[in-house]
Amino acid sequence: MTALRELLLNAVVHRDYTSPTDIQIKIFDNAMTFFNPGRLYGGMTVSQLQTDTYQSSTRNKLIAEAFYLTRDIEKYGSGYIRIRREIAEYPTMCFDYTESGDGFLASVSYQEQKTVTTPKTTPKTTPKKREQLIELIGQNNRITRDELAQNLEISINGGQTAYFEIEERGRSNKSWGPQVWRLARQLSFER
Fold first, then answer.
1. Which of 44, 47, 60, 143 fits 40 for a cystine, CB–CB 3.0-4.6 Å?
2. Which class in CATH covers the domain with range 2-110?
3. What is the CA radius of gyration of the chain?
């Protein structure tokens, strides 16, 4: 997640290196916190940081420059804007930050996890794809699973599914020859 990367970069770039306290990252079941030694720098306040028009000050210019040159930082002073935009895409997620003791504490948490459901089974391969698969094998009996998937414009797992369907049907069709069986066996071991 881009927001976590930005929080880590901010902790490294903006910490107070005169403090003996370490950066502390804590991971919980429903939250992550980033404690950064050193309060906000250059007169910045938390309420200013909550706007998209805040003026950033850099405590560690050489460290910031190094991260900028390696393209880990895109633009100075835009990290918290990016974090807020990224978190906004997850409606159940919260982003909080405050000055705490001699440091700065940022946390990302959620009440309900956003999940993505995926189908439990791979869809069956179309008859046309199966015929193309057999034709490709006939043209080159050394063709790989990756090459087949690319030629058929299907996922590698889709190619594997096609093989298994051909193997099932091929038990009653002896004309397909040893190439199909060799590739089917190869795929069954390449999972």
1. 44
2. alpha beta
3. 27
d(CA 97, CA 48) in angstroms, rounded, equals 12
Q: What's the CA dihedral at 62, 64, 67, 70 to 10 degrees?
A: -70
- The span from the CA of 89 to the CA of 105, in Å, is 22
For 111-153, the pLDDT digits (tens) are: 776 565 555 544 455 677 777 877 888 788 777 777 777 887 7
| C-alpha to C-alpha distance for 12 and 6, rounded to whole angstroms | 10
- 41-75 pLDDT tens trace: 888 888 888 888 878 888 888 998 898 888 887 76
Q: Where are the domains of the chain?
A: 2-110, 127-185
DSSP structure string for 90-128 = STTEEEEEEEETTEEEEEEEESS-------SSPPPPPHH
Measured CA to CA, the distance from residue 45 to residue 54 in angstroms comes to 9
Give the burial class of 93: count Cβ atoms within 10 A of its Cβ; 0-12 exposed, 13-18 middle, 19 or more buried: buried
25 with 11: CB under 8 angstroms? yes
For residue 23, the SS3 value is coil
Among 145, 137, 146, CA closest to 179: 137
Whether residue 38 contacts residue 59, with contact meaning beta carbons closer than 8 Å, is answered with yes
Closest Cα to residue 23, out of 76, 113, 102, 83? 102
| Beta carbons of 32 and 96 less than 8 angstroms apart | no
